[in-house]
Write a structure and sequence with these properties.
8-stranded parallel beta sheet; alpha/beta; 2 domains
């Protein structure tokens, strides 16, 4: 007798093959059998009639930042309610382990800046019952998790552990690189899924200091990546600055013999061909036997922000004089004509890797503080500037300063050209990614990226078939990361499952909730057309949303440690 039987389902098996109607049986958390329609399956303790709805493997979210949240929230909301069954932590190298007690506050302050998180929520929420990376994994495993999770060992965390405050100030000495290499090898031996880092100029920590990994010389990066070769497993993940040459990365990954993910490849209307040049270079490397993929997003990069935390602008070199300033000097800097002119001049120069590119018609005034400015709400900054007869940057900063930096703006920063995004998603060197779930909580929420890919891109725009969308979300990342028993509806695979209505599947609108530690806010997105999620055979979501675990059943997620890639 089976534990679970799901009947009359439209089965998308994750391979990219067309769907078939049938039933799926689960025993002991694994898929026991897949039956064609018309075959009468064995009896089961629990039977769910899919009533013709689609059943697919659960979504593998390969780019999350749940490193801190997983220590206080084993449910990993909102991903758990949005069809995700496996999450990869530690992207961009921004993990919280290893971390000495004396560096905990500095680590959290860096996360507050670089990942747009509430410092108060982090200080109240993170449970520091670990110091080393192996202890961190043990802590996650002992506490339990609703979803399956795996974690990169992060470059910035390793650098901070070895170099302390100097990690954001200088290059490492040879002996320090030796110590970092030992930590990376230890992490890989204990179950890290790979090594992650960042060279992006947009990644700044407290006070505008560069995140530690940005100070690494080429030799340091090469030594740490070659630890993957010694381990014989693992993925190298890099959030790439425009100054980091792909040929250098290609040669390094060729030497390591490990898969490589380069992020974040987003379409920029002011430099429309740049992202495709990067993807084509990656495809050329793939043709030479080097497994390189580009992390692309299926969502427009839309952020809500105020100028008290000007994340979209902080990657500009001209913005650096404003980083880390106290309130009064910061306001004075924003008002300074020379500062504004420098920002304008930089925005006038095309760039491949930049969040904001001076597209003022894509920045909207979402909410004002002062009643006299209500006429500007729902206007773009470009429209407001035309009405005022002023330069857009001046209009933008003047309004923010007038309202004590409390004006709320909404900006579609990248990926606003849907034809171009469709080309990126179809490119053979692309990996659907970049949900950033767990970070930038008050700016945006793309944790429902998988539902958007199926509903918007496959069903509504027919950019590819639904079965291809399912493959991109399941077996493709599972194979890349060496998750050999996930991502497919095949006997013996883990019973990570998602049931949905193909006619309705998608993500809902954004709303603000206050469910973080210390009552901090985050943006939430509800699923649409989602009818069930199972993790290792246990149902965690039904038609009413995330199920309550009041019965006290053990959390079904697994800490993933063994990888075959």
């Amino acid at each position: 007798m089976h534990d679970l039987l799901i009947t009359h389902a439209l089965l998308y098996d994750g391979s990219g093959a067309p769907p078939v109607t049938g039933a799926l049986a689960v025993n002991a958390g694994r898929i026991a059998a897949v039956y064609p329609e018309g075959i009468i399956p064995d009896a089961a303790r629990e039977t769910v009639d899919a009533e013709g709805r689609a059943l697919m493997p659960g979504i593998v979210d390969n780019h999350t930042h749940y490193d801190a949240q997983i220590t206080w929230d084993p449910t990993l909301q909102p991903s758990s309610a949005l069809g995700v069954t496996t999450v990869i932590l530690g992207n961009c190298g921004f993990g919280i382990a290893p971390c000495r007690p004396r560096e905990r506050d500095m680590t959290l302050r860096h996360l507050t800046q670089v990942e747009g998180m509430s410092l108060e929520a982090l200080q109240h929420g993170v449970r520091w019952d670990f110091e080393t990376f192996p202890e961190y994994l043990h802590s996650i495993e002992a506490r339990g998790c609703l979803l399956n999770a795996a974690a990169y060992i992060g470059h910035s965390a390793v650098r901070t552990y070895v170099m302390g405050e100097d990690s954001s100030r200088r290059a490492a000495r040879p002996d320090e690189i030796d110590r970092m290499s030992a930590l990376v090898r230890e992490a890989l031996q204990s179950g890290a899924i790979g090594f992650a880092t960042s060279t992006s100029p947009a990644h700044n920590g407290e006070g505008g200091a560069p995140m530690p990994s940005r100070l690494a010389a080429e030799e340091e990066l090469r030594r740490l990546v070659l630890c993957l070769k010694e381990a014989g497993h693992g993925v190298f993940m890099l959030t790439k600055g425009g100054h980091t040459p792909l040929p250098f990365l290609r040669d390094m990954c060729d030497a390591a013999g490990r898969p490589f993910i380069v992020a974040a490849l987003l379409h920029n209307r002011t430099n429309p061909h740049g992202v495709f040049r990067e993807l084509d270079e990656l495809q050329e490397a793939r043709g030479r036997g080097v497994e390189m993929v580009g992390a692309v997003s299926c969502c427009p990069l839309t952020m809500d922000f105020t100028m008290s935390s000007a994340y979209p602008l902080e990657g500009l070199q001209a913005w650096r004089p404003a980083l880390g300033l106290a309130a009064g000097p910061y306001r004075a800097m924003l008002a300074r004509p020379a500062f504004r002119q420098a920002v304008r001049a930089e925005l006038a120069q095309p760039a491949a890797f930049r969040l904001f590119n001076g597209e003022w018609d894509e920045v909207r005034v979402a909410a004002v503080k002062l009643p006299r400015n209500a006429r500007f709400e729902e206007m773009t900054v470009a429209q407001m500037a035309r009405q005022l007869g002023k330069d857009p940057l001046d209009s933008f900063l003047d309004l923010a300063l007038e309202e004590d930096l409390e004006t709320c703006f909404t900006a579609t920063l990248l990926n606003s050209d849907e034809e171009a995004v469709g080309r990126m998603l179809r490119h053979p060197a692309s990996l659907v990614s970049l949900s950033d779930a767990g970070a930038h909580l008050t700016f945006f929420n793309d944790a429902g990226f998988g539902l958007h890919l199926i509903g918007h891109w496959a069903r509504d725009r027919a950019a590819f078939t639904v079965e291809e969308a399912v493959r991109k979300l399941t077996s493709q990342p599972a194979r890349l990361f060496g998750l050999s028993d996930r991502g497919l509806l095949r006997p013996g695979c883990a019973a990570d499952l998602l049931m949905f209505d193909p006619a309705r599947i998608g993500r809902g609108g954004r709303r603000k909730v206050r469910d973080l530690p210390a009552g901090a806010a985050r943006l939430h997105t509800d699923p649409v057309g989602l009818h069930g999620v199972w993790v290792n055979g246990q149902r965690i979501v039904d038609e009413d949303g995330l199920r309550d675990n009041a019965a006290g059943r053990p959390l079904p997620g697994r800490l993933l440690r063994g990888f075959r890639n």
